[in-house]
Amino acid sequence: MDAPAYDAWYETPRGGWIGEVEYRLLHRLLAPSPGESLVDVGCGTGYFSRRFARDGISVTGIDPSAEMLRFATTHAVANERYLFGDARALPFADRAFDLCISVTALCFIQEQAQALAEILRITRRRFAIGLLNHASLLYLQKGRQGGQGAYRGAHWHTAAEVRTLFAGLPVTRLTLSTVIFLPSGTKFAQLCERCLPARLPFGAFLVASGDVVR
Known about the structure:
Helices cover 35% and strands 23% of the residues. The chain has helices at 3-8, 13-30, 47-54, 66-74, 112-121, 137-143, 159-166, 187-195, and strands at residues 37-41, 58-63, 81-84, 97-103, 123-132, 171-179, 205-212. It has a single domain (3-209), classed as Vaccinia Virus protein VP39 (Rossmann fold). The radius of gyration is 16 Å and the shape is globular. It is α/β, with parallel strands linked by helices. α3 links the parallel β1 and β2. Strands 3-2-1-4-5-7-6 form a seven-stranded mixed sheet, sandwiched between helices. The termini are far apart.
């Protein structure tokens, strides 16, 4: 999918709802203060980068796709910057950013442990890593047999896998949260989303959040 088509999905009723729910969870888990710095690893077209930038956060997005970065740069909203780079070897100094997000980027990286170590290296305070949840209705619909559409080739994580991935790393207060329990986006799905707590393990968007220990 090309960059304009990818980003346009967030303008559809279903895509806009999903993006909003995911952003609210990331924002709540990070609890950013205005002026803090945030890096978005695997930022793609910059949808989540733009959302945090609008809230007064100093945002840097990084991605290995030149096409995605061109789109993100031309649609910047609050002086956020976008850079070319690989999650497995991030071009930043240790503790360069207060906060870090990464939205499903690790699902498409074979060397996940290497990328996660890099994310923690450049983060001073707190992280929120969004993944695709194996224990979800969306996996049954889109993830089986190699995945469909934008999910083709993605790895869908179990909660046990995520805990194993973080084992031995310098993090504390590791929390797993999920949202998007019914990915259809219908009025009934949105009502369920408002009623169900993020501590339930069945949402399609699985977020591992915590503090970096130094």
